[in-house]
Amino acid sequence: MIATRRKKRICEFGVLTVELHQHQGDYLAMKNLVLTLSLVSGLCMTANCKKEDSGKISASGELNSSEKGLLAHLPGDGQVVFGGTYGKFMDYWKNSPLKGLASDLMKMTGQNTDMSDYMNCWMEEGGDKMRIAGTLNMQGQGVEMNMVFGGLKKDLFIKCAGKGGMASKVDEDGKYLELQNVPNGMGGTYNIGYYFIDEETTLFAMTMSMSGSAPKTANRAELEAALKAAEKGSAASNSNLATLAKTADRSKSFWFAGSAKGTPLADKIKGGTAWIDADSTSLSMGFSIQVTDSKMPKQAVDGFNEAKGKMDTMVPPGFKKPLEAFLKDVHLNADGDTLNGRFKLTNEVLDEVIPQAKGMLKMLF
Which terminus has fewer CB within 10 Å in the chain: N or C? Predict the structure, then answer.
């Protein structure tokens, strides 16, 4: 039973990795980062996290030519569109306490350093140049992701694969690179394929199961089919996805916008936007979620405030003081049918909570 619960929990975090780090083309590496962030977000209750403005996310409006250019390579179906640039995040990651926590997590789960070496190569040599755009399409029990990133030359992919000690194969025409037999974190392996649209534009795609089973990455034929589909109707020309992108705050490092229409969530959620941003010493996040029940946002805020008053009976004595300090700075705002939220994690806070995070990780693994 214990092993089963652990596996399920990890898989659930893995589904969220789409929104954070899939630019590196590896589900396992992203899963580690999201689990790290999730633990720190919860453990931030032991420290004083600073808040940001809790208002509704500001829309950036019309897409620029660079954003349109990337989205033009993606099929026009889907419910979520996302994008961003990595310069600020890479500066943050170099000195972030989360980097060490993510490394510890890999060791605790018995993973080798190949993927982390591959990731660090990306971050150190290409992160400041990389731009991404992507879409998510929920189909049945799976979520299909198509993502394109620009600014990286294909030689860097081959170089980083070598630094990670990964077996790789490049097709004779140089248009397709495949990393082979990469551990998927669930006891098996998979291949990770990249299709080079041109010298500095690359396509990646994968499908994730809602049941938590291992993801499936797209091969060359599937990536070429996605490009052909984009020629008939791309994310840049799709009015729904393009409109969603306009509602996001694209000034942030990573931005997301989505609609729940046509998905199992449609009876609860209309849609929303979110962002993740960073500077050299902090990571910040924000969201605005529009729901079908206009009473829910206020109920959520009221429930949060009520829970704060009951913390004396809910947490161990040693956690009371830091938890109270944290809750004073967590901010939710109800604006009609929209729930807004903001929070910020500084390195100072992380230095305080990460020892406790490591303790939790040891209990889990």
Answer: N
DSSP string computed for 31-59: HHHHHHHHHHHHHGGGS-PBP---SPPPP
Q: What is the mean pLDDT of residues 25-48?
A: 43
The residue to which tokens 């230095």 are assigned? 351
Q: What is the CA radius of gyration of the chain?
A: 20
pLDDT at 319: 58
Query: How many domains does the chain fold into?
Result: 1
- pLDDT for position 321: 57
Please tell me the distance from the alpha carbon of residue 269 to that of residue 338, in angstroms, as a whole number.
10
CA–CA separation, 204 and 218 (whole Å): 7
Torsions phi, psi of 195, nearest 5?
-110, 125
Domain region containing 207: 2-364
Contact in structure between 6 and 186 (CB atoms under 8 Å): no
To the question of pTM greater than 0.85 for the whole model, the response is no
Beta bridge partners of 198: 201
Contact indicator for 95, 278 with CB cutoff of 8 Å: no
HSE-CB for 29 with a 13 A CA cutoff: 20
User: CB-side exposure of 363: number of CA atoms within 13 Å?
Assistant: 7
Distance, CA of 110 to CA of 104 (rounded, Å): 10
Contacts of 198 (CB under 8 A, 6+ apart): none
What is the rounded average pLDDT of the residues 124-144? 86
Spell out the alpha helix ranges (H) of 44-150.
Answer: 65-71, 87-95, 97-108, 114-125
Q: What is the pLDDT of residue 315?
A: 65
Query: Please, what is the end-to-end C-alpha distance for the chain in angstroms?
Result: 14
Q: Is the dihedral of CA 94, 180, 144, 72 positive or negative?
A: positive
Say if CB 71 and CB 241 are below 8 A apart: yes
Q: Is the distance from CB of 110 to CB of 364 less than 8 angstroms?
A: no
pLDDT band at 63 (very low <50, low <70, confident <90, very high): very high
Question: What does the pLDDT read at residue 66?
Answer: 93
Give the dihedral of Cα atoms 241, 245, 246, 252; nearest 10 deg. 180
> What residues contact residue 299 under an 8 Å CB cut-off, 6+ apart?
none
Strand 131-139 to 142-150 pairing: antiparallel
